[in-house]
Write a structure and sequence with these properties.
By secondary structure, this protein is of the alpha+beta class. 30% of the residues lie in helices and 20% in strands. The protein is built from 17 helices and 18 strands.
Length: 518
């Protein structure tokens, strides 16, 4: 049998050949700490490949999902194994090169790209299911579109992201809300263990009995703070077919009816937590008829008759339309409920400024009317979107001190995507509008925000994301990443900066790091 080199090997050879040429000197800025010799040696050391600004496919790999804050990385490294990551960390440490980690690239504030080195984990995507023990171990770049189908072939389920191109790592480390989280908890609540590579190349396993502080911090402390998350072991659940339900209210035709619907959803479905088996998300955005609508989208784990009884307070309301119920596997129902929301053209790159706030109390009908009226009168373009993610059930039952995801005593996450593209041509208008909208909304929120929906202009982000556990996160950060190697615009520490913070809690005493032998 003839021996053939892989496409990656061929591309690496081309890159090395170019770096050997004297003419390549002009490619690297004279003030750069990176030399052609160093790049050539690094390319030879790793099995993956390096992508540079002069590589033909650089533009393909440099952008994140959002691309709201474009960057120009000096190096993008597509790694193939753990040793590649270790070599890259050593290289970056040796020249103090800003480095960030990218698994799925869905950071809404573009925190998984930078102007230095991007370690891209997309090729680390193995899935191992232990059916007997009802666990699954996944590499950090496994996408939910692949994981859902894999688990469903075993009749198993893990609460996950609504978008199939989201990877598990960053999603989990920020908490991880999904349509079945009221039934099975946040994604991070189901983590049994993690494996993490620190900046010094050492590997730690964290669980309830080993490196417990890391185990606590990484579940809600957000990605890019403590090390490179290599893999996660989850608890999973047996789950067959579920039901999905859709109900719409047209805001253009009757705003008061839409406001009454929002009040009823909160009052009938969230008060006293009647239905923990009912997952609910409510997009408020433009439909295909170019009308803005309140769109109730729900998943139901149970029988259809009970579902119909649960939604009766909604279906009997004035203005309820396009009522649909469907049965199928979770991935099918999730796609049916959320695909095409918002209704934006897929042929155009669309970016967004995103922001979130938590609501922990019942709003009145007049409150919802005020919110919808502000939105309808001021939204910069037709694509601008509000989304309500309903909490309760297993999310709120999880003890607040058991992980760094602290948002337990709330009813919903209220977030907004201020979307823009080359058609709307209103980037700055969206940025300004979002700031004004959330200044108006502050009267309804509890001062906290979902860290998976970060906003670079949120000046109080430490309190908003982590509240009175921020000091504890700083101490853990300083333990595992004492040189603050892993950093970005809203990362933890290294200094507490606690002047505006209050009632900070410390849960862990100082302990030694337990390293793995490999």
């Amino acid at each position: 049998m003839s021996h053939r080199k892989t496409p990656t090997q061929l591309l690496k050879e081309e890159s090395i050949s170019l770096l050997k040429k004297k003419s390549s000197r002009s490619l690297i800025p004279s003030k750069s700490k990176i030399s052609r010799t160093k790049l050539k040696k690094l390319e030879l050391k790793i099995q993956g490949r390096l992508i540079f600004p002069w590589s033909p496919d650089y533009n393909q790999y440099k952008n994140d999902f959002s691309n709201t804050y474009p960057t120009d990385p000096q190096i993008i490294a597509l790694v193939e194994n753990y040793n590649d990551i270790r070599e890259l960390l050593s290289f970056a440490n040796s020249i103090d090169l800003w480095t960030v980690i990218r698994s799925g690239g869905h950071s809404l504030a573009d925190y998984s790209v930078c102007d230095g080195l991007v370690i891209d984990l997309r090729n680390l995507n193995s899935i191992y299911v232990d059916y007997n023990n009802k666990t699954v171990t996944v590499d950090s770049a496994v996408l939910f579109g692949n994981l859902n189908g894999h688990l469903e072939s075993y009749g198993l389920h893990l609460p996950g992201g609504g978008c199939p191109t989201v990877a598990v790592a960053g999603y989990m480390m920020g908490g991880g809300y999904g349509l079945t989280s009221r039934t099975f908890g946040m994604n991070c609540d189901n983590v049994l263990a993690v494996t993490v590579m620190l900046a010094n190349g050492g590997i730690v396993v964290a669980n309830e009995s080993q490196n417990e502080d890391m185990y606590w911090a990484i579940r809600g402390g957000t990605g890019g703070n403590f090390g490179v998350l290599l893999n996660i072991t989850y608890r999973v659940y047996e789950l067959g077919n579920i039901f999905g339900v859709k109900i719409d209210w047209d805001i253009n035709d009757n705003l008061p009816d839409a406001a009454r619907a929002l009040y009823t959803m909160q009052n009938e479905l969230l008060t006293q937590d009647k239905y923990p088996n009912f997952g609910m998300q409510i997009p408020i955005t433009m439909d295909t008829d170019r009308h803005r609508k309140v769109m109730f989208r729900g998943t139901w784990v149970g029988d259809q008759a009970s579902l119909e009884a649960a939604i009766q307070p909604l279906t009997s309301l004035n203005g309820a339309s396009d009522i649909q119920i469907k049965n199928g596997k979770y991935s099918t129902i999730n796609g049916w409920l959320l695909e095409g929301v918002p209704n934006i053209p897929h042929t155009v790159q669309t970016n967004a400024f995103t922001r979130s706030m938590y609501i922990d109390h019942q709003l009145g009908t007049s409150d919802w009317e005020a919110i919808l009226s502000y939105f309808m009168k001021t939204a910069p373009n037709d694509y601008t979107m509000i989304d309500l993610e309903f909490y309760g059930g297993r999310i709120n039952e999880f003890p607040i001190e058991n992980s760094a995801f602290i948002h337990r005593n709330v009813q919903m996450d209220f977030f907004c995507d201020a979307l823009y593209n080359s058609i709307t041509n209103d980037r700055e208008a969206n940025k300004i509008w979002l700031e004004g909208f959330f200044n108006f909304l502050a009267q309804y929120g509890n001062g906290h925000s979902y860290q998976n929906y970060p906003n670079r202009n949120q000046r109080d982000y430490r309190w908003a994301y982590w509240g009175n556990y921020y000091t504890q996160l700083v101490t853990i950060k300083n333990k595992y990443d004492p040189d603050n190697f892993f950093r970005y615009q809203q990362s933890i520490g290294p200094d507490a900066e606690m002047k505006e913070m209050k009632d900070q809690k410390i849960l862990f005493k100082e302990t030694k790091i337990v390293y793995e032998p490999y």
